[in-house]
Amino acid sequence: MLNQKAFTFIELLVALAIIAVLFVPVMQLFSHSVYSASVSQDTITAANLARWQMERVKNLNLSKEQLTLMGNEIYPPLTALPIEMNNAKWRIKRAIINGTDPLEIRISVCRDDETIPIVTLVTLIEDMHWEKVEAI
């Protein structure tokens, strides 16, 4: 009998089967990480858009009555093109919650083709009353 240093066909098949069994979970982990990165990107984008809109509302420096009169808003309007950012189209909804003191404002961000918001921020607005105080 000759002393052979090569692998037999059965040994190669067993090695390939072991590699295949180990390869499947690694590919599932890879696909899950790609999905998670996509979801994280959407969440970060929506959070940044919500913060931007919230700063716009706060910087208007309006009273509670003026904000209540402005009412709810979708930005950009449904008649206009949505905001395009990170290969997605976005809409921002501002909701004024009447009957709350201080006034509650909710900013929700969702993709243009969806109705469920990805991110919702809430802030409270209180009118500031300044009185002139005379020095004694």
Q: Name the poorly predicted regions.
A: none
Choose one word for the global shape. Answer: elongated
What's the total helix number? 2
Q: How much is the average pLDDT?
A: 88
Number of domains: 1
DSSP strand content: 15-25%
Q: How much helicity do the residues have?
A: 40-55%
**Strands, total number:** 5
What is the N-to-C succession of helices and strands?
HHEEEEE
Most strands sheet: 5 strands, antiparallel
The rounded Rg comes to 29 Å
**Through-space gap between termini:** 116 Å
**Oligomerization state of this entry?**
single chain
Quickly give the structural class.
alpha+beta
How does this model look, in words?
The protein has about 140 residues and is of the alpha+beta class. The protein has one domain (about 10-125). It contains two helices and five strands. It has helices spanning about 10-60, 65-70; strands at about 75, 85, 90-95, 105-110, 120-125. Strands 1, 2, 3, 4 and 5 form a five-stranded antiparallel sheet that branches. The radius of gyration is 29 Å and the shape is elongated. The mean pLDDT is about 90.
